[in-house]
Specification:
The protein has 126 residues and is of the alpha+beta class. It has three helices and six strands; from the N terminus they run H-H-E-E-E-H-E-E-E. The protein starts with a helix and ends with a strand.
Length: 126
Amino acid sequence: MEEALRTLLRGNAAVAALVGSRVDWGMRPQGSGLPAICLTTISDAPVNHSLDGPGVSRARVQVDCFGATYGSAKDTARAVRRLLDTYSGGIFLGVFLAGARDLPDDDGVSTIHAVSMDFFVNYHFT
């Protein structure tokens, strides 16, 4: 799922126009450019439902969109949302927005702004 989600985001023209290849799991590499996207798996569990069959899982993935300005972070988040919310295809049975929030600049020094979204990702795992 991780590789497929990263490939999906990097391969989308609207998202790639904003972040290029700066889509990473776990943490954003230090010194990498902005805007950028960082993905984190919050939870991932098999779905035990007879209609889905074996090999189906449901993950909650946090997608953090970073920008040098609030507008840049928001533009990136909107492009991601347009792509992912209700997406299905490939291994993905359905991706749905669970919630979104702006992340404040807590240290008062940083010039990095962020918008965070959680998505439920239903997928076939191999």
